[in-house]
Write a structure and sequence with these properties.
heterodimer, A: Rossmann fold, Rossmann fold, seven-stranded mixed sheet, 13 helices, B: about 675 residues, ABC transporter involved in vitamin B12 uptake, BtuC, 3 domains, two-stranded antiparallel ribbon, 6 strands
């Protein structure tokens, strides 16, 4: 009982102390949330990206003469924890805006929190279309090209293939389902003659690759759409290669060209797959060069796609604050709408109509060089070309 | 036809790898009765070590040597774990070993990332087995054929080991009657250690052998652990051939199931388990277990309602807690609200676990149903908060009504695993039924009405509901219903002899616990503003379990303290550090070793020691200091079903526990807990 009282007293004391943030007048605080402990392979490069950008911004005198400070929180891969973290950042740390998140459902949870609390949220990595369309609202903006955008980029390439019989394999959750649906829709517009002969939906992280590969092969498709990634992708590629599934078949694959997913495959990277990704070794633009050099100098490592996303998200946040000349949420929204920004991938703009940035992605083919998977025949696809028109968006997105 | 043969072979290969992972768990449980949650972690460790070693050593000898050495290294690590951690806690209620190995799993998850880095690692393919063989015109990977052989070989080797060696005879004897084996002069300590080492070796081997098919990644432990538990339970606890049979059934059903229903994989093992357990409550090849549960150690210090001084102290704390909004900020209030919700959730589980002796591994189902109930009512039916909030507990009650009917027919681990199966089935429905539940993207915008909106008001609402809920559950514990529930827990035969209907009583308890969990879930939905399938998933069930165990499984309301400590610590750690799992795991392991009776149990023990040192000396019947020290398992009855709570010498064999223990207890004995 006494100890209980002690615990209670300690908790109460703890709350009392943690209450009331210390303000420094020459600082602007940004809250950042991501799945650092759950998905370190993707989020650690992301963190390096925004850290590099933050350093650059503050080296140039910060925003409006004020130093930018990022308070970063882990969400442990759980939406409920992410809301707790967002709440701590907003209520306790007094941040002026939120940014980050990786998983779609966590992005949606934080976005919904932002709507309720009327705080600005710049989503970095979640891919779900719902974030800016079905569940879109004025407080949330998103950087990365969405599911539908990447599907359209891939469908454009896929439509050029002679294949008519298609099969799909995708992880059985919202991302996989909407990626397949968006791809089907996009390719149907260009190629009405295509038919879908098989679909496989392994649970995320638990693919029974042998059985899946057999089932796909049994349908005798001419081409395959793959949406699996991470450990599932490794198993799928190994089983598929051994069982000859990819022989004389085209494969179109989401995200596989990103170093996060391609590099673990090493020399077994599936040659010839048409993929979206980030060929950091082959991009020859001045903007990217500067980023690459700075990144390698600071971290002595090569950037992953997450690094670019983190880097650009941070710069976008700073640019929004700069343009708004205020930390007031409404002014931040006004500033972010139509904001133009130079990135390592080229200029982007945050669209007024749905708050989606026009950041694009690289499309190319997988090859193996020196025992490592790389992308060749790369082309940058500007996101602006793959987004629906304003009229279509107005049908998709609830109007204010 | 050719296709079906090859698909069958593919299923067999998966079955073999599943069996390799599951066999070790089955052996460990069969002998030591430890629910080794860390089995998946050992499996993962085997894969990581194999990646490192195969990178160092080349050639066929290097590869196979690396696989063996990796498995052996994991076994050594397992032995160290057993000696340092498990040996200290064999004597405490069995679930604490689950808690201890859970803590170890958390630690290893972070350690693996620290040592091997966050990226998935891919190992080489097996030399000589890289390619494929043409069978009936279809390519079958040679390595699959190797695995197909490997499973039965391991099964046969285990059979020979258990039936043709002296060690095997001793192990089988210990499985049946540990105390008799000890009485015959066998050193149980080393018997247990060697069994544990063998089990862990098989886990490491299973992980290492995945290398040519899979990458080593830091999520592979959690992706395998539940599945191997399920396989072991379907086969029948402790039955190695049963585990093999179950692995084959599950894998083949999956291999052919996906041809008809491509989305079936996500839930197939749980469907199989639910079906098997409903028909055969002790698994396919398990033996029907003897008379149900024994008196738990707690009954030698019978629970009492709080006495006036304690009531005053608790009331004081409640007043203090009610005043929190006057000196805490919004964030602190939100954290406190969350903690209160988990207090109610954990206490509802405690009613089942402690009072009813019904350990649920799927309590999150009712928490999540509560959350979905309000979310669906608020968003799909557009109801305002006032009626909508009742939809949560109602839906949870409905779930508990249906699932409870099936589950209370089972006992021990089988009961626990059937609750898990139902929870996973509910989860997969929420996950798959996108039109209604939004699937993985959940249901957004479930915010409280403005009358109770805002941190302060919502805190008070939660405070009132949680406190009322905990009080209700306590009143129930000390009501005639609570006594009936305790009676069927302590001695089913005697309880039935005096006219208590076990199934009805336990079913009712199940529904009550489910409803309170649903209430907590409903509040949680409004606190977070959104509802996801996560809320129904295993981590929340495990959280509730950990809270009850931390607080003390032999206490009435230990869960309250357990929930406060665990949740506050977890939130704080996630906020402050990236290695929250490492630290949380270390804290759990530390607590398990230092205070295996849980925080409140430990405090009660201290209080008893301090207050009545003389009383225990005077009483020759009462083991000195504390009787918990020598809680030894009680023959085969215990090994049969003493899963949740082990009997103590004082409690065992006395059905009239209350009366019996009162004779042994000091006159003013009480429990220092809220």
């Amino acid at each position: 009982m006494r100890v209980m009282l002690g615990i209670a007293a300690a908790l109460v004391a703890g709350f009392a102390v943690s209450n009331g943030p210390a303000w420094a007048a020459d600082e602007i605080k940004i809250g950042e949330i991501n799945s650092y402990s759950r998905l370190p392979a993707f989020t650690h490069p992301y963190r390096k990206g925004w850290q590099l950008a933050l350093e650059e911004i503050n080296a140039k005198g910060g925003v409006d003469g004020k130093k930018l400070v990022v308070i970063s929180k882990d969400d442990a891969g759980k939406p409920a924890e992410a809301v707790t973290a967002a709440n701590e950042l907003v209520e306790s740390d007094g941040v002026v805006m939120l940014m980050g998140t990786f998983f779609s459902h966590i992005g949606l949870a934080v976005s919904d929190y932002a709507k309720q609390k009327k705080i600005f949220f710049l989503a970095a990595e979640p891919l779900t279309d719902a974030l800016v369309w079905a569940e879109g609202h004025r407080y949330t903006f998103r950087l990365r090209p969405s599911n539908t955008m990447q599907a359209s980029m891939l469908a454009e390439e896929a439509a050029k293939l002679p294949a008519k019989r298609w099969a799909a394999v995708a992880p059985n959750y919202e991302y996989g389902q909407s990626a397949v649906a968006a791809f089907k829709q996009a390719i149907a517009k260009k190629r009405p003659d295509i038919e879908w002969v098989s679909e496989q939906w392994p649970p995320l992280g638990k693919i029974d690759a042998g059985a899946i590969v057999q089932a796909l092969a049994a349908a005798k498709p001419e081409a395959i759409l793959n949406v699996t990634f991470g450990p599932d992708l490794v198993k799928f590629v190994r089983e598929g290669t051994t069982r000859g599934l990819f022989k004389d078949r085209s494969v179109v694959s989401f995200l596989t060209g990103e170093p996060e997913y391609l590099d673990p495959l090493k020399g077994e990277a599936p040659v010839g797959w048409i993929v979206t990704g980030y060929p950091w070794y082959a991009i020859e633009t001045a903007d990217h060069d500067a980023f690459l050099k700075a990144y390698q100098a600071k971290f002595n490592d090569y950037p992953r796609l997450g690094s670019v996303v983190g880097y650009v998200t941070m710069h976008a946040a700073a640019a929004i604050l700069e343009k708004a000349k205020s930390t007031d949420t409404d002014k931040l929204i006004a500033a972010a709408r139509g904001l133009k920004l130079d990135t390592p991938f080229g200029p982007i703009v945050f669209r007024e109509v749905d708050h989606q940035s026009t950041l694009g992605a690289y499309v190319g083919k997988v090859a193996v060089k020196d025992g490592k998977g790389i992308m060749v025949d790369i082309k940058y696809r500007d996101g602006a070309d793959y987004l629906p028109s304003d009229e279509e968006v107005k049908k998709l997105r609830p109007q204010e | 036809m050719e296709f079906f043969v090859v698909q069958f072979l593919t299923g067999l290969a998966s079955a073999s790898s599943l069996f390799l992972a599951a066999s070790g768990l089955s052996i460990i449980f069969g002998v030591t009765r430890i629910l080794n949650f860390a089995h998946g972690a050992f499996y993962m460790l085997g894969a990581y070590l194999a990646v490192t070693l195969t990178g160092q050593w080349s050639g066929p000898l290097g590869f196979w040597g690396a696989i063996l050495v990796a498995a052996l290294a994991v076994a050594v690590f397992g032995v160290i774990t057993e000696i340092l951690l498990l040996r200290r806690i064999y004597h405490v209620p069995e679930l604490f070993q689950l808690l201890g190995t859970f803590g170890l799993t958390l630690i290893l998850q972070d350690v693996v990332v620290l040592i091997w880095g966050p990226e998935d690692l891919i190992g080489p393919r097996a030399p000589g087995l890289e390619g494929a063989v043409e069978i009936l015109g279809q390519s079958v990977p040679t390595y699959d054929l190797f695995l197909i052989v490997c499973g039965p070989v391991v099964l046969a080797a285990l059979w020979l080991l258990f039936h043709r060696t002296r060690w095997g005879v001793l192990v089988r004897a210990a499985t049946q009657d540990r105390d008799m084996v000890a009485a015959l002069g066998v050193n149980q300590k080393w018997l247990f250690t060697s069994v544990f080492a063998l089990g862990v070796f098989l886990a490491g081997l299973g992980g290492a052998l995945q290398l040519p098919r899979d990458s080593a990644n830091h999520m592979m432990d959690l992706s395998i652990i539940v599945e191997v538990f399920v396989v072991v339970v379907i086969g029948g606890l402790g039955s190695v051939p049963g585990a093999f049979l179950a692995a084959v059934i599950v894998s083949e059903l999956n291999a052919f199931g996906i041809l008809v229903l491509p989305k079936i994989s996500i839930v197939i093992v749980f469907l199989v388990m639910a079906a098997v357990l409903v028909v055969r409550p002790w698994g396919l090849l398990g033996r029907q277990e003897g008379a149900p549960r024994q008196a738990p150690g707690a009954t030698i210090h019978p629970w009492r309602p709080l006495r006036p001084p304690q009531q005053i102290a608790v009331a004081g704390m409640l007043v203090l807690a009610a005043c929190l909004p006057f000196f805490a900020g919004n964030y602190a209030l939100n954290v406190a609200t969350e903690i209160l919700i988990f207090v109610l959730f954990a206490q509802s589980l405690q009613l089942m676990m402690t009072v009813g002796g019904l350990v649920s591994f799927g309590h999150a189902a009712y928490f999540g149903l509560g959350a979905y109930g309000v979310a669906l009512a608020a968003r799909s039916l557009d109801l305002p908060m006032m009626p909508a909030v009742f939809a949560g507990p109602l839906l949870a009650l409905l779930g508990a009504f249906v699932f409870g009917w099936f589950t209370v027919r089972l006992v021990g681990v089988y009961f626990a695993m059937l609750t898990l199966a139902f929870a996973q089935i509910v989860w997969s429905i929420a996950f798959q039924w996108v039109e209604v539940t939004g699937g993985d993207n959940g249901i957004l915008g479930v915010w409280p009405a403005s009358a109770v909106g805002g941190a302060t008001r919502f805190y008070w609402l939660t405070f009132v509901v949680a406190v009322a809920g905990v009080i209700c559950l306590r009143i129930l514990t000390f009501s005639p219903f609570g006594y009936a529930l305790r009676a069927v827990r302590d001695s089913q035969l005697r309880a039935e002899a005096i006219g208590i209907d076990r199934l009805r009583v336990q079913w009712t308890a199940f529904m009550i616990a489910g409803t309170f969990a649903g209430t907590a879930g409903a509040l949680f939905a409004y606190l977070k503003g959104s509802v996801f399938p996560d809320y129904l998933a295993i981590p929340y069930s495990v959280d509730a379990l950990v809270m009850v165990l931390l607080g003390g499984i032999e206490t009435v309301s230990g869960a309250v303290v357990g929930a406060v400590v665990y949740k506050a610590l977890a939130i704080w750690l996630v906020s402050q550090t990236e290695f929250s799992k490492l630290i949380l795991g270390a804290v759990i392991v530390g607590l398990v070793v230092l205070a295996p009776e849980g925080i409140v149990g430990y405090l009660s023990k201290l209080a008893r020691r301090i207050k009545w040192p003389l009383a225990s000396k005077r009483d020759p019947e009462r083991p000195a200091g504390s009787s918990e020290k020598i809680m030894r398992p009680d023959k085969e009855k215990e090994s049969a079903v003493g899963f949740a709570l082990k009997p103590s010498p004082a409690g065992a064999g006395s059905g009239g526990v209350e009366a019996g223990s009162q004779e042994n207890s000091p006159p003013r004995m009480t429990k220092a807990e809220p």
